[in-house]
Amino acid sequence: MEVGIIGSGVIGLTSALALVQAGYSVTIVARELPGDDSLRWASPWAGAGILPYPDSAGHDLQVETFKYYWALAHRDPTSGVQVVDVTEYYDDRSDDATIWYKTLVPKYRRLPSENLPANAKLGFQYQSMTVNPAIFLPWIKILLERKGVKFIRAEIKSISHARSLLKTEIIVNASGLGARVLANDDKVIAVRGQTMLVESDSHEMVMFQGSHYTYQIPRMYSGGVIIGGVSQEGDTDETVDLATRTDILRRTNLITQDRFRSVDLNKHVMKDLVGLRPSRTGGYRLEREGSVIHAYGFNTLGYTYSYGVALKVHALVTTALEEKRSQQSRL
C-alpha cells in the first residue's frame, strides 16, 4: 500500500504522518524540504498559531487539529509546540454567536466591553497552541523518516511526472501554490504576508480581526514574538516593505496597550519574514479526483487545518484503494 505525496509543507507532512501511522508506505517529493530557507513555500514563514476561525468551513478538521497539537504540546515540547493564553478581538461583530469553538477550547471567557482596545466590539480569551515552524518542520521530518517515510527533492511538472517518479498509483497533491499548475486550478492565488520576529518574553497570543489583521504570536525557543501582519491577495513581492514594518508596529501597540512602545525597528527586530500563502478563491480544495487526492488552498490556516486534513486525506486514500481492489476483483 504505497502512497506518494507532492509537497512537504505542513499539509503534506501531517498527511504523511496519518498515512504511515495507518500502515501505508509513503514517499514525499517536493522542491523544498524542511530546513530550507526559501520564500518559494509558505510553511516556514507562518506565525504559527493553532487558531480556529469563526467564518471558515471545516470545523471538524479544525477540531481534530486542535486535539492533535494540544496532545503534542503536552507530550513532546521538543516539537516546538507550546500551550499559550490567547486573546482575540473583533470589530466586525458584537457578540460571540459565531465563535463556534468556544465549547472546544479550554478556559474560554468573554471580556467586558470596557476592556476592549482599538474600537473592538468583541473580545474573549482561551488557551490554544503556537507552533515554531523552524523547529516543528525538521522535527516532524525526522519523525517521519524514523517511520520509514522517504523524501525526494525534485520540482514536479505534472501529476503524471510525480507518478512516474514515485511509482505509486495514489498521489496526494499537497503542493500549495504549485496546485495552480499541477491541478490546472486557476482559483489558486498567492496571498502575501509580512511579519517581524521581535525581541520579547511575552507568552501570550493576541489577534485582532475585522477592519485590520494584527497579531502577536510567541515563537517558542526564539526569545521573541512574531508581530504582524498583512494579507495582500495576488501580491508576490518577496522584498520587505519598510512602511509595512512601521504600520505593523503601530497596530500591534494599538491592540496590546503599547507593549512594544520601546521597540526600535533598527535594533530589536530579530528577523523580517515575508511569505506567500497558498490561498484559493472560493475556499480550500480537499477531495478525491480518481487516484489523486487534492489538499491545498488553506491560506493563513494551514497549521490550524493540518492534522484534520491529514485524517481526511487518509480516509480518501483508503476509499480510492478500496475502489481499485473492487474493480480488480471484478475483472
TrEMBL record:
InterPro entries: DAO, FAD-dep_OxRdtase. One of its GO terms (cellular component) is cytoplasm. Residues 3-311 form the FAD dependent oxidoreductase domain. PANTHER family: D-AMINO ACID OXIDASE, D-ASPARTATE OXIDASE. Keywords: FAD, Flavoprotein, Oxidoreductase. GO terms for biological process: D-amino acid catabolic process. This is FAD dependent oxidoreductase domain-containing protein. Its cofactor is FAD. One of its GO terms (molecular function) is D-amino-acid oxidase activity. Belongs to the DAMOX/DASOX family. Coiled coil: none annotated. The keyword Flavoprotein applies. It comes from the Eukaryota. SUPFAM superfamilies: FAD-linked reductases, C-terminal domain (SSF54373), Nucleotide-binding domain (SSF51971).
